[in-house]
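Milestone 3.1: sequence recovery, worked example.
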């Protein structure tokens, strides 16, 4: 085993049914259902025009500024995969651009996450292929390695195992662990439904705001 320069097999991944279900739930509701303790970091932003990102993770640990292992990951990715690259958040060199995105689309990849930089931002920003990144740089990448594929990675404290569920929308990016997709979905779907009900009550002027005053009193706030 060559730790730091290796490609492993992915033992499991979330199935298409969960991907379809999570597509209808906002990331914020999922985050709330995970006690707001997990996040991919505020710097990871959608670089594409519109559209949600949902799919099983194919993970890449890359040397900052080098995309050799990302190229291989795209070659072995299965349709529907989300390629997630931990490049240390370095923005010196872009790891992906328009041509690699075109290849990913051809391969049926569901989206890409780069904890690092991209380039060809105008072309990528005009499209709907889901791509999240930490920044933009015109300087291109090196292709020397080392790196790893299908290993556990971490982005801003958010651990991602190969096959975990990756979701992203305009509010940011989130990983749902493989073993918890069912439990988290049930909570998130219930919260989403409750928020729709609350929005209807707001529109009708029937929403209950008594909790605010009750909370202030309970916390000892001085009131007039």
């Amino acid at each position: 085993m060559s730790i730091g320069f290796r490609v492993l097999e992915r033992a499991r991944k979330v199935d298409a049914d969960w991907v379809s279900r999570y597509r209808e739930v906002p990331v914020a509701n999922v985050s709330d259902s995970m006690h707001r303790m997990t996040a991919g970091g505020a710097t990871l932003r959608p670089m594409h025009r519109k559209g949600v990102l949902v799919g099983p993770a194919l993970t890449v640990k890359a040397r900052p500024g080098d995309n050799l292992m990302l190229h291989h990951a795209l070659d072995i990715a299965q349709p529907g995969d989300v390629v997630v690259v931990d490049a240390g958040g370095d923005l010196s060199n872009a790891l992906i651009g328009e041509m690699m995105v075109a290849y990913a689309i051809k391969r049926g990849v569901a989206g890409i996450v780069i904890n690092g930089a991209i380039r060809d931002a105008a072309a990528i920003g005009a499209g709907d292929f889901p791509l999240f990144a930490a920044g933009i740089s015109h300087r291109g990448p090196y292709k020397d390695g080392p790196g790893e594929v299908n290993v556990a990675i971490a982005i801003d404290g958010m651990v991602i195992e190969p096959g975990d569920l990756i979701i992203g929308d305009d509010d940011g990016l989130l990983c749902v662990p493989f073993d918890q997709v069912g439990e988290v979905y049930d909570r998130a779907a219930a919260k989403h439904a409750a928020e729709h009900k609350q929005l209807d009550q707001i529109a009708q002027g029937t929403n209950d705001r008594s909790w605010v005053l009750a909370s202030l009193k309970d916390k000892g706030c001085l009131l007039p």
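The chain has seven helices and twelve strands. The helical segments are 16-22, 27-33, 68-76, 98-107, 121-125, 181-204, 210-218.
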